[in-house]
Amino acid sequence: MELNRIDLLIIAAYLAGITLFGLRFRKRQRTMRDYFLADRNIPWWAIALSIVAAETSTLTIISIPGLAYDSNFSFLQLVMGYLVGSVIISLVLLPQYFRGELYTAYQLIERRFGPELRTATAVLFLLTRAAAEGVRVYAVSIVVSIALGTGEVTSILIITLLTLIYTFEGGLAAVIWTDVVQTFIYVGGTLVGLVTILHLVPGGWSTVRAIAGGLHKFQVFDLSTLSHWPYLNFATSYTLWAGIIGGAFLRTASHGTDQLIVQRLLAARNQRQSVLALLSSGVAVFFQFGLFLFVGVMLFAYYRVPSAAFGRADRIYPTFIVSRMPHGISGLLIAAILAAAMSNLSAALNSLASSSMMDFYLRIRPTVSEVARLRLARMATLGWALVLFGLAVLALHRVGRVVEVGLQIASVAYGALLGVFLLGVLTRRANQRGAMVGMISGLAIELYLWGWSQIAFTWWVAIGTSVTFVVGYAFSLAFSATSRA
After folding, report:
1. Fewer CB atoms inside 10 Å of the end CB: C or N, the chain?
2. What is the overall mean pLDDT for the chain?
3. Assigned CATH class of 5-398
4. Phi (first) and psi of residue 455, to 5 degrees
């Protein structure tokens, strides 16, 4: 069974509707504060949903079910660590961000250390965010090419172009409010998909429970390392300690130092609402990942064949949608997956543009008029859309399970970034030269972990942060002693 006219009509209606909805915010953009911070007038619940949407890309929706299909619910251990990380950000980093008028996370680094380190951290963000986002945009082609048969490159082009239109015109306000709509679409679509799969499995829930229970697919906790404490298993991605410790570091870095999320937190009306948005988004993400994992277990109970039969686990859910779902529901689910893709892409475009403008261009040309700034901000958004399109095309046929590849690329930089931020917030004696040495050391160790070690990616941020902090603090003391001498 393939998509019919009803499905295609639903998909087309969604794409046209969300694009037109985003364009409604064009007239509200008169200043850089409007374009990049939505005039700091977004309610906490909208920011919370936008954060959830920003970290939920197509690769999340198609790859997390594939993960559960091949294994179990142990990925949730990592999400539990996310909740711990959200609390750390609320207590340690958010109070710093709300002292003054900041547009990007890296302005905080300049305020604490100096302009050179601000440049270094911003460059690191731009490079790794663009690379990780390229993989996420590539994931769109897996779904669209299966559903519409348009080809992978054409599929990437369609989504990139439509997302660019409203992000280019409406800025962060358009991004956040379209995220709110898209969150309801993809969560609602996933719930419909879950019920439909359950209905199609012979015997329904009793069959799913028997098959999945017998193979321990509902297992959440991997306690194998507890009997060997304090020795940790660094080679396995999803254990209790890797989840709690590694997840906490990953969340603190991704939501506390990455402009993609920090920009949303800065758009809140005040610090209290920002904290509320962050904490509630962490709870929502936990239940959302649980939903996606349930989909994977249901699919396993339905197919009962190895994921290799589909070529790769990431293709299982899209293939099921197109070939097994009733017409109408298929179109709704494809639209839901595209909603996640567009919300994540729009977030990346706006955050990359904001950092490019605030951390680089306006430091060189601070006297540019507000009209010119707004025009250049839109040009930066267009430029990054072209870059991400190119990176997504390069990613074709070059990555494995896309959700883990996306997390790995981001994790390579997160440890170095978080270590620098913690040096600035938690210490007084750390200085710019020491922090720079620490960041380079942390980045080097994470590149080694990525390319040459067997240590699971869930530990990379914790290790990189520790190396950056220790080396940075030690060298700061050494440079300080040298200068006094």
Report:
1. C
2. 87
3. mainly alpha
4. -75, 135
